[in-house]
Every structure is written in C-alpha cells, then in structure tokens.
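Subject: Sanity check before I submit

Could someone independently write out the structure tokens for this chain? I want to compare against mine line by line before I put it in a report. The sequence has 223 residues.
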Amino acid sequence: MFDKVAPRYDRLNRILSLGNDRGWRRRAVALARLGPGEIALDVGVGTGDLAFDLVAASDPTSRVIGVDLSEAMLALVRARAAASPLGSRFEARIADAQRLPYPDVSFDRVVAGFAVRNFGDLEAGLREMRRVLRPGGRAVVLEFSTPPQPLVRVVSHLYIDALVPRIAALLGGDADAYRYLPRSIAGFPAAEALAALLRDAGFARVRFERLAMGVAAIHVADA
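---
Independent answer below. Compare away.
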C-alpha cells in the first residue's frame, strides 16, 4: 500500500492535513534536536520529511538513520539524500520496526512521524524503540490521535472518513489506501492510552501534548 502511495505521498499529506503537518513536525523536531556527535533513528522514515527537518535543525556533527519497510519510500528518500547538501548525514535502510537490526543502546534519539499506528504489533515496536535508545536518550512520537472533545471528534471523523478518500482520488492518489487512514486512526490508542503503553515498554517521564484540538499528538519519553 505504501509503495503505491509513495509518489504522491508528500503532496497529498500537505493538502489533506490542510498544511498542519509542517508545523506539527517542527514541534517534534524541537523536542528531538540532536547535539554534537549524536545519532537518531527515524522509524518509518517514509519520504524523509521528519528526518531531514531533524538533520537541518541539529548540530552539524549529528546524524540520522531512517528505516522503513516500503522499498518505494526508501527509493524516494535515498534520491532526496543524494540531492541534498545534508545527505551525507543521513542514511536509509529497509528494516522492520518490530525487529530493529541494531544493538541495544545504539541511539540518542528515536523518532517516528505518523508511523507507529502502522505497526502490526504496537507493543513490540515500542519495546524495540526503547531497547535501542541509550541511557538519557529520548523518543519523540508524532501521530494522529482521537480528539477528546466530542464535537471536534465528530467533525474530524467526518472529514477523514468521508472526504479524505475522495480528495485523494481526485488528486490522483489511491482512494483505497486513504480509506485505510480512518481505520488505522480509529483502531489506534488515544493519547493517554499510548502514554501508558510507552511506560509499559520501559520508558520514563512520559508526557504528551495535543495538536489541533487533539487531531494529532506528540509523545515524549525518556530512556
């Protein structure tokens, strides 16, 4: 599915999020910024928006590694790296987030942007994120969420369920793939429940902030 949507993924995300995704990523990057010599893992890197924003905002001696299961997404992010002056500080690798191919305590940051709700086993993926994080490190997870206010929740569901697949089809996207979006959000834990799962995975000082009245949320958790 992600291979099919890869060529139009960024453009559609800009339009379907009404441009909000950029600001949400900026906030996530501010919470994950890397210091001298530090290294981050971007789980579910996609086309690299979060990874390259993080590289650009961090110390020039820091690096980011992105992993994904979609070959088409990885092809796009590698082309992006090759064309970017920041590309030498980024590398991409195909990998399963639930079985990361890295030793324990390998990274200073682990970040994920709109990726963890796609894990087949969410708990296993969160445990892996914790396993590869160094002591004193931080995980930053940006993800869609369920708004706590009933009216906002109803409007959000109407937009995502009814309009998003139609808009995606009109713009040349895969309507079936974007029908997956509301299903994945509906089945994903609310912000409080995701915070509890992060604690269960071994993270400390778990906190979160809601974005756009709860349409999305950023969770921050320390090793």
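---
OP: Matches mine. For the report I'm noting this point. The radius of gyration is 17 Å.
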